[in-house]
Amino acid sequence: MALNPRMAQWAGKRVWLVGASSGIGRATASALHAxxxxxIVSARKAQALHAFVATHPGAQALPxxxxxxxxxxxxxxxxxxxxxxxCVVYCAGHYAAQRAVALDLDDLLxxxxxxxxxxxxxxxxxxxxxxxQPAQRRGHISLVGSVAGYRGLPNSLAYGPTKAALINLAETxxxxxxxxxxxxxxxxxxxxETPLTEQNQxxxxxxxxxxxxxxxxxxxxxxxxxxxxxxxxxxxxxxLLELLPYPAFFAIMRRLSSP
Length: 259
Known about the structure:
Order of helices and strands: EHEHEHEHEHEHEHH
CATH class: Alpha Beta
């Protein structure tokens, strides 16, 4: 069942991807460009953005730091004035493994600032523009979460709660914005080969490339899905964890986290 308007035709559409200097964001921007979309790519790494634009004619680089509210607002105004927004995608993320026995408050707060507060900055900046667009072109907001947000997992003390917050946020946004013609989706990947996951010291099951992830994201948008999760051979198992009662869940977590 389609919960959002299906987005399958990208020619002439304008998509702003925040956090697109590498990984899933960059691959998705490239896939959209190949299908005729005008892509605006943002991230802190200006050099990487300009390198993307050099190989994707017609794309636009708009460097920014998602933790800077004023800069995000200024960038949103530039995107809106350039021709509006058909889709806004938040791909920015920070990840470092952390456990409670070695709590690092500064890094915990960095996760919150990038993974969650940055989204709030973007929403505050783009929602007035989206709601002011003609009713037939109110656009779509897509947030990149993670299956790590489904339940509390080992080594995910800092990362997991921020992704759980995004899932909850997306659900509430969908409820609030559906009647106003703004689509909302949450993207929950499993393990994807990115600069963030390169630091993992464990075997990552069902690991996929950013290009495969981008393909799955475009498929999800074309279906009108609210949640886009992949690869399904892994994510359905993670979804089963959500259904387990706490005694069974914690027993599994003890086995996974044992030395």
